[in-house]
Amino acid sequence: MFSHSFCLLISVQMSFIIKLTLPFLSSINLNQIMSVNFASLTIQAIADSLGIKLASPEIISFLEKDSEKYIRQIINQANALATSARAYKLSSSHIDIALESKGLPPLLGYDSIPNYVPTPLSVDQEDLFGIREDKTPLTETAQAPITPYPNLISHNLHWTLVEGIYAGKRSSSRSSRPNREMKPIERSVSVPNVSSYQHSEVQRNLSVDPTENKLSDSKKCADDILSGEHQKYFISTINLLRCDTVHSLDVALDMISEEDKMQPLLPYFIQYITGKMTLDLQEFTQMKVLIRFTHALIQNKSMNIPLYAHPLLRIVFTSLLAVNLSNELFPDDSSIRKYAAEALFSLVKRCEGCFPEIKQVIFNSLVKILFNPDTTLNAHYGALLGIHEIGFFEVLLPHFRSYLKMIKFELISNLNLQNHAAEALLQLAKSMLFEFAFKCPAEDKKEHAKNLIDEIDRFTF
């Protein structure tokens, strides 16, 4: 007990000696500092200052070994701390931390120096140095800190481009690392085994000149903008749409609607769909696949759909309100418009949080189509489907009798040139009125819907 207490006293008294020898600790061996004569004289001087008489040299030798071991532990801990902190030299702060961990006071002589005064040392020894404290301008101290205004709006914007910008310039990552290994991006949704057979069948059934590039339309949408991995991923996704069976196409679209790695490809898919619709507006089968592909992208929960609401809305409106999407092989284009109406419902559902008035805006646009005499009845068919899908059919109901009168006038003035479209339109209106009358709790609105059904039944073609 006496030895341990005396060691504590020695460690305090030795702090001044450590201060003097501190700049040389990195170049002088610790054994040289704790030499026998040096330690013995120090212990005797400390004992004399405390009024303690050491009777025999054995006691001094015992205290010498115990004190040396104790101080060596402190220096080793401080040295380990300086090494882990990558310090240039062992400093007083490292020893202070080691002393503090043992509940001891810091080194004497360092606390008396103000921390805001620079302490460069101009001495002959180059190893002796001091720490210059950072100066803080008075103007920064006088100014009150500005509290940032809290941002309560959550931004759900994702990154959309990878390894490049939309300027036709290659990114630096390609040129700086030309030898990196290109790993294909794995899909998060497994493809059924039938896809490999289906892919080979599609390649055999494609009626394209083998000398031409079969994927030119796909590569134009992504070249020099996406990385090589994403371009392959883009092309493989487009190939899934070229299925020659209904079941295979359904499986591919289900996979696309659940894929979670397609966010950076979304703007290029939109570009691809827009370009194909521009060229193949009268291709019934192609338009049907494109609008279903659009619907699958909108349904994908990993996509940031609100960021691309406007281009997606143009694609949906094109399929929903086009003048005529039929051809000689497929005279009825109602199926395309039904898929477009379902896509419109999903788009409104995904974007309603970011655009609270999107339903009203879409309803106003569709109503203008209905009451525009220059539009075709096929477009009216799509407008009615859209209004019904967004849930605004009840708002249209008070004006429906005027609309039916206008349809009757159009039929008479056009010499029955749109009989097929008019019959499909009125059958759609009749089914919507039946559904509304069945679900509506208000008796007056239900009776009004029944009267409109009776008027439709009196139409003759």
From TrEMBL:
* Record GO terms (molecular function): protein heterodimerization activity; RNA polymerase II general transcription initiation factor activity; transcription coactivator activity
Q: Tell where it localizes.
A: Nucleus
| Entry GO terms, CC | SAGA complex; SLIK (SAGA-like) complex; transcription factor TFIID complex
Q: Which GO annotations describe the biological process of this protein?
A: RNA polymerase II preinitiation complex assembly
Q: Does the keyword Signal apply?
A: yes
**Per the UniProt record, which residue ranges are transmembrane?**
none
InterPro entries with a match to the protein in the record:
ARM-type_fold, Histone-fold, TAF6, TAF6_C, TAF6_C_sf, TAF_TATA-bd_Histone-like_dom
Region annotated Disordered, chain positions: 193-214
Q: Which residues form the signal peptide?
A: 1-23
Regions of biased composition (Polar residues) lie at 193-210
Query: What is stated as this protein's family in its record?
Result: Belongs to the TAF6 family.
List the protein's name: TATA box binding protein associated factor (TAF) histone-like fold domain-containing protein
Instruction: State the organism named in the record.
Output: Tritrichomonas foetus
Tell me the classification of the organism that encodes this protein: Eukaryota, Metamonada, Parabasalia, Tritrichomonadida, Tritrichomonadidae
